[in-house]
Task: structure prediction
Amino acid sequence: MKNCFDKCSKRIYNEYNEIEWAENACPISNVMDILLKDGCVMYKIVRKKELNDAVTLMEIEAPFVAKKAKAGQFIIFRIDEQSERVPLTIAGYDREKGTVTIIFQKVGFSTKALGALNEGDYIRDFVGPLGKPTDVEGKKRVCVVGGGVGCAIALPAAVAFKEAGAEVDVIIGFRTKDIVILEDEFRACSDHLYLMTDDGSYGEKGFGTVKLQALLESGVQYDEVLAIGPVPMMKFVSKTTEPFGVHTVVSLNPIMVDGTGMCGGCRVTVGGETKFACVDGPEFDGHKVDYAELMSRNGIYREREAEVAKDHVCRMEAMGKALIK
Amino acid sequence: MANMTLTKTPMPEQDPKVRARNFQEVALGYTEEMAKEEAGRCLNCKNPKCVEGCPVNVRIPEFIKKVAEGDFKAAYEIITSTNALPALSGRVCPQETQCESKCVRGIKGEPVAIGRLERFVADWYRENVNAMPEKVPSNGKKVAVVGSGPAGLTAASDLAKKGYEVSIFEALHTAGGVLVYGIPEFRLPKSIVANEVKKLEAQGVKVMTNMVIGRVLTIDELFEMGYQAVFVGSGAGLPMFMHIPGESLKGVLSANEYLTRTNLMKAYDPDSDTPVIKSKAVAVVGGGNVAMDGARCAMRLGAEHVYIVYRRGEAEMPARKEEQHHAKEEGIEFKTLCNPVEILGDEDGRVCGIKCIRMELGEPDASGRRRPVEVPGSEFVLDVDTVIMALGTSPNPLIRSTTPGLDTNKKGCLIVNENEMTTREGVFAGGDAVTGAATVILAMGAGKKGAAAIDAYLSK
Result:
């Protein structure tokens, strides 16, 4: 029973109290019926897979998004009426089924809440595709570098490069063996796959940048290096390629509210100019991004988020108690 | 015999000290008695100038006469024959520069409180009748409206009344545009906007949220889907910044972001998951209505000091006098003739102050306002932990960059002809997308003109 409340919005909760429940009825599906009857369009989770302890894959039914989605673009989800809008880069799509795949790390409050949902549940909003797609045209050989959960977004880019006719090298790096994700998928779409772990427990030992440095030194010519992962990793990939003069693109993940070019929260400094990741990006020239500023700005709400997480537990407990009464 | 009192019947308001800390509506609205008394001040001019001053030409003396007679329902019907959203315009219109500026009673004394009366009638109707309009039989023609702000809602309503099958495509998760993300609850309760949207739906208008036109669907795809005309009311766009040092520090936000977090995402509600900065001292840069809204939200979210920093004088402020007055009453400190030169940060990258320079007014510039000039050596620092930039916006690039043949001017605003049609056949536009940041009522006026132009275009 309590599990259901973890998914409840205040509105559902209010309506919930007005209903006489049949014995053993599944509250959440009844509640969803109420909402759908009201004409709310909601987005169904059709598949869920835990890729490792911290990373979850979800396939969401969103035909309009699936129809248009391209590698490099992102979506914004919102779980319920009380939730914040959270951007996530698209990890895959199936135009025929009308579904979009997202892969996310349960780090913040909202990604944890999303991770607590299951197949068959609905989320309130799922909007996209937003941002500009990865520019894959006209490249002979590229290197896609993915770090940790960033590999989830690196995968569709690698696939898109391959489909556009490029020779694709992939370097994916993880902390340790237990958190390696999408190895088979990368193997299928790359010409060379280099799997790295920081502790050497799987693949080769070392950071992805070490491998990239070695490849560049050995004389491999790339038209482009695309780096997707934690900000420090993207910064060091860009530092690595700079002396070689290789065009480098990074996919940024600043804080956003609307994601449509209105709030300006996602502004980043690129080559001394203010750019908005939601409409000008999210991919930018890696040699021009002000990483220190991006890292600092991404920490704006860290304290406040911890507070929300604490309050939220209390809210759910209160709801749970009210129901049991 | 007309009520010859020289002043408007006062509007009951929440006490400034109390309201500065809550998000409930500031102005409480007239009672029936107050409305009748104020309506009695109207001279019912033969040649009413007030109507000319209204962008949607509300038949002002006629509705006021009905209010004086106590027939509020008839008054409502007169208003809504030309104005689809009176509960909104009665609250947020700058009447003092429009209808009320033309009122003959204003020559000697105060003009008739037209805005307050309009609001009263709309509220009375919502509370006492609130009949949902009926769906007009379809004429079989489909029109797409992009954006559900004041321009889009007005265009949709006028088109639906003529029998068009209208779909509104809204980018955000809630319909209303600036009425829900920008204008705060204490000036325009969101339930009122929601009620207007409900009325549109009763007229058969389909409202689709999470539809970012230019990304999810393009204008060309709307035509492929069978829409015969498109009205673009996509509103203002990206916030402008000053390009001074320190603007990327933690604690510098655009007014759009601050207001969106506070209003649309309800950051003031402890149940909301969306964070907003809890500020002790806030500087809001700018002198428009948006700056006032930002400052008043900051005060309500618990700031101890809130400053308006504006480079010209108070007389030059574009914000409505009423908003300035309300802001001051609530304890907002005006630092006029001051311009920020740098935002100061601590070692953690958080804002800890804003360095400003004093200004004096020189010769008038192109806008006719006296140009502010820096006073050398007059720099000073305001201790603040948050800076909100309310400097206006530049148009959103999503639609123009994905619609071939849609021309914009140098600023990026859509170009329209005298019939509100853009440079693309069948694509009409109005509101901030065309004019750049302006007012709700001008957008409503543009929505109205756009709907009439679409009707003429599709009736050819």
Q: What stands out?
A: Chain B touches chain A at residues 171-173, 181, 208-212, 215-217, 236-239, 241, 243, 247-251, 253-254, 256-257, 260-261, 265-266, 269-278, 349, 396-398 (CB under 8 Å). The CA atoms of residues 408 and 414 of chain B lie 4 Å apart.
